[in-house]
Amino acid sequence: MADNFYKHIVCIGAGYVGGPTMAMIAAKCPQYKVTVVDINAQRIKSWQGNELPIYEPGLLDIVKKTRGRNLFFSTAVEENIKAAEIIFVSINTPTKTYGSGAGKTADLQYWEKIAREISKVSESDKIIVEKSTLPVRTAEAMERILRVNNKKAHFEVLSNPEFLAEGTAISDLENPDRVLIGARDTQSGQKAMLEIVDIYKHWVSKDKIVTSDIWSSELSKLAANAFLAQRISSINSISALCEKTEADITKVARAIGMDRRIGSNFLNASIGFGGSCFKKDILNLVYICEYYSLYEVAQYWENVIKINEYQQTRFVKNMVNAMFNTLANKRITLFGFAFKANTSDTRESPAIYISHKLAEEHSRIIVSDPKALDNAQYDLKGIADCVEFELDPYKAARNAHAIAIITEWDIYKTLDYERIYQQMEKPAFIFDGRNILCHKKLYKIGFNVYPLGMPCMQHF
Ligand code: UDX
Ligand code: UDX
What we know:
Blueprint (H helix, E strand, L loop, with lengths): L6 E6 L5 H11 L3 E6 L3 H8 L10 H8 L4 E4 L2 H7 L2 E4 L19 H13 L4 E5 L7 H12 L5 E5 L9 H6 L4 E4 L4 H15 L7 E4 L1 H32 L3 H9 L20 H14 L3 H28 L8 E5 L14 H11 L3 E5 L4 H7 L7 E3 L3 H5 L4 E4 L11 H6 L6 E4 L6 H7 L2 E3 L10
Bound molecules: uridine-5'-diphosphate-xylopyranose (UDX) (2 copies).
């Protein structure tokens, strides 16, 4: 080896998972050389500069400390695969849109392509670590591709799912609830597993590093996301009941969350969950269950997605009902477009669905978001003629008939709503899809206020 590094790690995929995860490993393990490669040259260029391709609090600091020392970004995929002992694969795995399993199972064509590439160029043994969320038993299929095409090198495929959430990626990586590593129960499998444990041991205590077989590890990731999403659909389903019966969802959530067996996290009623993982992973789970003829189990999990869609539909229907059954030519301002606060990510954001529904109602949509406007413009290409984008929330709300809170960004909690109200059309409406505002105060200012899962406050 030409340099003095103990080992070379390469990560394929410089996205929301690969970038922050590798930056953390590089920061905690200076004796490892960590190179993140991607086929997207523009993305790699951004990682090399000061405008990172993703917004994630605290990420730039870590990247600045490690970049050029032991963290590198490159488009030279083949060369880096050759040099690495450990390869993390962190590419996106979208839901398949064609052929068998369309709409449910993961599209593994990129994974397979990468397995073939690794196998083609490798001249020495490699540990391949699945970071992407994949259907159960993908590792097995990958091993077959790797082994059939290359007899020179030994490939050990491991599963090490990522549990970080966007917006809190750096603290999640620094203080994980657990690190899960799945490996084969063979001598080489266990040896490879210890090599991955060695990396995490630099900053994660041993009792939090959990090991298992590969399939249990793969399934744990799908199940964890399904359970998290299920909590949101559960509380959202109760929010619909609250609106009809004048109960208050925040009070219900508080009371049930104080039961230690239930716990208080992930009980915020909302316009619905978004993000790249929940829907895709549940669909994967549904597909696997159907494959094994477990139809009742498949339906059970599918309903978590149905309630999520219902919640978004309900939100727009409530707007139409409240605003005298027509939104035609009315200006509706969306505060927030990202799928949650502190991220620029808009994948599967309820904002996309809501915008399209509003466009069908012939509204004029004004989108405001502190970090996600570029992604929003891309997402709304199809309805560009009825959408405007405005970074400044005060300008965005000027002459609007209604404001809808879509993302729980802190800035929306502290705006001068008196000033906003003065500049809006009357009667002025606020639909708080995240229950983050002080509803009584808004009502006093003059707004007609529609929180989620609690009684509305209207002046007529
Ligand atoms: C991650 C996980 O990998 C995915 O399984 C999970 O479901 C969501 O989170 P993420 O990091 O968010 O994906 O994806 P993305 O930001 O799209 O990054 C993936 C990167 O892989 C992209 O930059 C893409 O260019 C790159 N890629 C993809 C390759 O370099 N080669 C390929 O063949 C395919
Ligand atoms: C999720 C998992 O949390 C993470 O462990 C996994 O690795 C990837 O998927 P992420 O998608 O980044 O992470 O965000 P998360 O914080 O889980 O939020 C998902 C969605 O649920 C967001 O749209 C959020 O607004 C919504 N949500 C969350 C609610 O509506 N209510 C809640 O109480 C919590």
